[in-house]
Write a structure and sequence with these properties.
The structure is a single chain. The chain is an alpha/beta fold. The chain has four domains: about 10-185, no CATH class; about 205-335, Serine Threonine Protein Phosphatase 5, Tetratricopeptide repeat; about 345-540, no CATH class; about 545-710, Nucleotidyltransferase, domain 5 (2-Layer Sandwich), CATH 3.30.420.10. The chain has 35 helices and 13 strands. A hairpin with a 2-residue loop joins strand 6 (about 490-495) and strand 7 (about 500-505). Helix 1 (about 10-30) packs across helix 9 and helix 33 (about 655-665) runs parallel beside helix 35. It is globular and about 85 Å long. Residues about 1-5 have low confidence and may be disordered.
């Protein structure tokens, strides 16, 4: 099926550009500097053709253009518009700074021709990128320009000012207005709000954010000249806000990493020591210790222990000090794992440690939920929804997280409201606040609360089981620094008879990370039961399996659909239940499929849709290993059906084909029909779901006999 999109009006991109410019000037007003005001005034004085042309050029990734590149049919007078841009400085002729961009825009044969014309030794087998690097290294721009006609090239002007205006609007580096197009096509949703607050409090703060964000991007992409950046550190913008300090710390850490990769330890340490963040301070300690400067390391660690910046720094300093100076051989993390609870589960759950633990705790009477980093941030968003999203906390419709969380000003902007909400939580009214938010805003776009069918029940269990004072304490900490506490929380939340417990699950080989230990310590310090459980794998004869067979309209999900599901539940080596249904696939069943399965279009016409039976089937599968003959086929179709409904589907799998090959080798064929003949398994209606599932269940019993003997 082809998808059609609406025809865009001739001035579509220009109109969105004006929308952005109008928004920035109205929100920031006199805060804008001279360069920004000159840009806006100059743009508004351009002809319509020039405005449209500038926006189209600025929206493209390339940095230089030939006249042929500017063939936009919707712009009536491209030549006149280009003259207007050149006269006003919104476009310019090329210079040495554009050398690489020109070479990148040329075809490989043209680059080869330039190299040969100037007597450079090259090989035609070289990739274009290598050719470009060779010319940049061996052919000065002046020599290149002396015999290469650049008069047909132009570049959009004022890129830095344009980039800064887009940064003011989006709060991140944006080269173009693609987000507007995605919004209009319905791909990206935005929040509707009458008024927004400026995300920056001063022009200097905004410029600092822009500069450091650009440097961080260049460092991450490997495009930054780290030697030049090191020499310019003192000239970079001053820190005028917490978020700029965070950006500068990120920049310093990445720059230090760059010098470490070059084994320039001296400059790496010099860079790290400029930072205030823990990750850089940790690197200083480790590098100094590696150089044998133990007295200096001891002093740094003792300072960290006396006045740690956060829990993670204290944990690091305590662990490092004990191992290096108290001569303790193992780390606190290793000790913690060694003393943690052990959960033994079937080896089929490898890769599904959390699901295995949920099954284990459920068998012990706990209501277990995989909450991890979704629980506390979602609760925070639900409790403080009005302050975050409804009272001016947003900076533009494209924002999903308020700026006041990013710059850590939330607790200062809404001190009274936060304390009033926390007082209600301490008084046991947290669930009332959550229910009001869910009722009024469920499904609203945001970057904090992850809406799901289970959100309400999970929040109810949390708030009815947890001490209100402890819940309020976590929310208060998050209100002061949301980003510092948005991850690292334990994997599972367990509730039973008014009790609540949080558990971090670790499979074999997993390590405890500092931020995870810090969250456990935070929760334990507030009175929660919070600990670690290790998953150990073995063969479990009492494991629950669901053997599934599906019939379909064809062989490829998601284009083909399920027509029938049969499932057999086995526990402790015994069949304990069955599940079966025809399914209306909402599409035609081909004749050859009907010949194979016996399932016709008439048979499924009045059958339920998968959506009608999804919850029932999901409940039947709960806590089981998914088994099938050629399991990826059946698992793939069932997974596709659940994904269509945005329902989670994640179960460990066992394939009776591969398992029979492993434990019963030597057969010419491992088809279900042939194996049933060999082992005397009853199979009356082959290619009907429930009969095939029953037969595959008998194979599973054979497989488990051999698995247990081999263990």
């Amino acid at each position: 099926m082809s998808r059609t999109f609406p025809v865009l009006p001739p001035t579509y991109y220009r109109d969105h550009f004006l929308e952005m410019v109008g928004f920035v000037t109205s929100v920031y007003g006199e805060m804008l500097g001279e360069a920004e005001h000159d840009f806006v005034e100059g743009f508004l004085e351009l002809s319509e053709a020039a405005q449209c042309l500038f926006v189209r050029m600025s929206n493209r990734k390339r940095q230089v253009f030939t006249f042929d590149d500017l063939d936009y049919g919707e712009i009536g007078d491209v030549a006149g518009g280009l003259d207007d841009l050149l006269d006003s400085g919104f476009a310019r002729r090329l210079n040495a700074a554009d050398y690489r961009a020109v070479l990148d825009a040329m075809t490989k044969p043209d680059v080869v021709e330039v190299a040969r014309r100037h007597g450079l030794e090259i090989k035609t087998g070289w990739a274009k990128g290598r050719l470009v690097e060779h010319l940049l290294s061996h052919l000065p721009f002046a020599d290149f320009a002396s015999d290469f006609d650049l008069s047909g090239f132009v570049a959009p002007g004022q890129r830095d000012t344009l980039g800064f205006l887009l940064y003011l609007y989006f709060g991140r580096l944006n080269e173009n207005l693609l987000s507007f197009t995605l919004r209009d096509l319905g791909v990206v949703s935005v929040r509707e709000q009458d008024s927004y607050r400026a995300r920056f409090h001063s022009l200097g703060e905004a410029r600092g954010g822009y500069v450091y964000t650009a440097i961080v991007r260049a460092l991450k992409s490997g495009e930054a000249d780290i030697d030049a950046l090191f020499d310019q550190l003192d000239a970079l913008p001053e820190i005028q806000a917490d978020f700029i300090e965070a950006l500068r710390n990120t920049m310093l850490f990445l720059l230090g990493q760059g010098f470490e990769k070059r084994r320039d330890v001296e400059r790496a340490i010099a860079v790290y020591e400029r930072a205030t963040a823990f990750d850089s301070r940790e690197r200083v300690v480790r590098l100094l210790h590696g150089r044998g400067e133990t007295d200096r390391v001891r002093a740094m660690l003792e300072a960290m222990l006396d006045s740690p910046a956060d829990d993670e720094e204290f944990i690091f300093a305590d662990d490092f000090y004990r191992r290096k100076f108290d001569k303790v051989r193992t780390s606190v993390f290793t000790d913690l794992l060694r003393t943690s609870e052990i959960i033994e589960v079937d080896e089929l759950y490898r890769g599904f440690a959390e699901e295995a633990a949920i099954r284990h705790f459920a068998a012990d009477g706990w209501s277990a939920h995989h909450t991890e980093n979704g629980l506390w941030p979602s609760l925070f968003g639900l409790v403080f929804w009005d302050e975050l999203f409804e009272t001016g906390g947003m900076s533009s419709g494209f924002d999903l997280v308020p700026q006041c969380l990013k710059d850590r000003s939330f607790h200062r902007l809404f001190t009274a409201q936060i304390e009033a909400k926390l007082a209600r939580v301490r008084g046991g009214q947290g669930l009332d606040i959550v229910r009001d938010t869910v009722m009024n805003h469920a499904g609203d776009d945001n970057g904090i609360v992850w809406w799901s069918d289970s959100l309400g029940p999970v929040m109810a269990q949390l708030l009815m089981s947890a001490p209100p004072e402890a819940v309020a304490a976590v929310l208060k900490r998050m209100s002061e620094d949301f980003y510092a506490l948005r991850d690292g929380f334990p994997d599972l939340m367990l509730t039973r008879d008014g009790q609540i417990r949080f558990v971090e699950i670790k499979a074999e080989g997993d390590a405890v990370r500092r931020h995870q230990l810090a969250r456990l310590n935070l929760l334990k310090g507030l009175g929660f039961a919070a600990d670690i459980a290790r998953v150990k794998y073995r063969i479990d004869p009492d494991q629950t399996y669901v053997v599934v067979d599906v019939e379909t309209t064809g062989g490829r999900p998601p284009n083909d659909r399920v027509t029938e599901i049969g499932a057999v539940k086995i526990r402790g080596g015994q069949v304990v239940d069955e599940w079966h249904s025809l399914i209306n696939p909402q599409r035609h069943i081909p004749g050859f499929i009907t010949d194979l399965t016996g399932i016709s279009n008439a048979m499924v016409a009045d059958a339920p849709l998968f959506a009608d039976v999804a919850e029932s089937f999901a409940a039947f599968l709960q806590g089981a290993v998914f088994v099938a003959h050629n399991v990826n086929f059946d698992h793939g179709f069932i997974g596709a059906e659940f994904r269509r409904l945005d329902m989670r589907f994640r179960l460990p799998k066992l394939c009776t084909v591969s398992s029979m090959r492993k434990y019963y080798p030597g057969h010419e064929s491992y088809s279900l029909g042939r194996l049933c003949q060999v082992y005397g398994i009853r199979l009356e209606n082959h290619h009907r779901a429930l009969d095939d599932a029953r037969a595959a269940a008998e194979l599973l019993l054979l497989i488990n006999e051999r698995r247990l003997k081999a263990a």
